[in-house]
Amino acid sequence: MMPSEPEEDYIPWIQQYCELFGHDYFVQVSQDFIEDDFNLTGLSQQVPYYREALYTILDYQVETAEDHNNDPTNEPRGGSSSNSKRNPAELPNKALLAHSAELLYGLIHARYIVSKQGLTAMASKFERNDFGSCPRYFCDGMHLIPVGSTDVPGQETVRLFCPCCNDIYIPSSSRYLNIDGAFFGTTFPGLLVKMFPEIENQCRIRINKFSQNDFGLKLFGFKINELSATGPRMKWLRMHPKTEEEKQEYNSCEYNVPVSYLEDDDDMDEEDDDEEELDEEDDDDKTMASE
Ligand SMILES: [Zn+2]
Questions:
Q1: Which 3 state secondary structure label does DSSP give 102?
Q2: Where is the composition biased (Acidic residues) (predicted)?
Q3: Which end of the chain is more exposed for a tag (fewer CB within 10 A), N or C?
Q4: Are 38 and 191 in contact (CB under 8 A)?
């Protein structure tokens, strides 16, 4: 209807989306990234009205059910593209299309920020402290990194990861409480820390800055005995492994399933297999008997 009129105050969809209230964790995905089909592999199955959503993000004109209803002549807009000849029942309505476009952008965003270009963009946001600081005293204002607890959209909202205490926090402002965590994904924080060793360096400085003796509970300047009932009993929760031995112990606790468990599992699997074989034999017997 008015394709050329509003060009002066025309704002691209992506910029508009990233400037919305509560969307300040997002970076603007570059047009090149979106136009490369390789980067969008598999997304067409996850997003309803995928093609229309993609066109919306890229600022192409998309016909919606409303446009069709408001146009009495039903004349296709924008020439004779195959898109405008579609059955009006197949056209998305505006609200649905907006939702699809946001979902698609979020999923593309999660992929973009683990690419070189996106990582760099997010790193400068991290540097500017756009994601906020860790509330823990010993983390000394360490900058936080957005993270999703799952890569499946619609499950959980965005969380913030502190590379210093390795804890995950809920954003302090409610404006982020409807931002999908999957739009940042589970891979991003680990990759950011790996690609920018400076982040780990900042953590090391903080961990070394506070020696165990400087802080902790005190009464009139005297340290409370660690064995005391009112002593610092939860201190071990915040301790970092220092010697090789401690590190090994830590790794085996965090990441390894105890060996005895694994052995039990194997035994159980074997038993299951045996049972299945027996069942099959039983079945054979029955069929033979009935014949
Ligand atoms: Zn922290």
A1: helix
A2: 262-285
A3: C
A4: no
Domains of the chain: 13-66+92-206 (2.20.25.20)
How far, in Å, from the CA of 20 to the mean position of ligand 1? 28
Q: Output the CA 122–ligand 1 centroid distance in Å.
A: 19
> Can you tell me the distance from the alpha carbon of 68 to that of 76, in angstroms, rounded to the nearest whole number?
8
For residue 263, what are its two tokens? 């052995």
Q: What is the pLDDT along the chain (291 residues), one digit of tens a residue?
A: 444 455 667 899 999 999 999 999 999 999 999 999 999 999 999 999 999 999 999 999 888 888 777 655 554 444 444 444 566 777 888 999 999 999 999 999 999 999 999 999 999 999 999 999 999 888 899 999 999 999 999 999 999 999 988 889 999 999 999 999 999 999 999 999 999 999 999 988 887 776 655 556 667 777 767 676 666 566 666 667 778 888 888 777 755 555 565 555 444 444 444 444 444 444 444 434 333
Global confidence as pTM: 0.69
φ/ψ of residue 143, rounded to 5: -70, 145
CA 137 to centroid of ligand 1, rounded, Å: 8
CA of 199 to the centre of ligand 1 (A): 12
Ligand 1 centroid vs 85 CA: distance in angstroms? 56
Element spanning 218, H or E: strand 218-219
DSSP 56-68: HHTT-----HHHH
Distance (angstroms) between ligand 1 centre and the Cα of 109 equals: 25
Q: How far apart are CA 88 and CA 66, in angstroms?
A: 9
Distance 117 CA to ligand 1 centre (A): 27
Phi, psi (degrees; rounded to nearest 5) at 238: -105, 10
Task: Kindly give the distance from the C-alpha atom of residue 28 to the centroid of ligand 1, in angstroms, as a whole number.
Answer: 27
- Rounded to a whole number, what is the largest CA-CA distance in the chain? 92
Query: How far is CA 259 from its chain centroid?
Result: 32
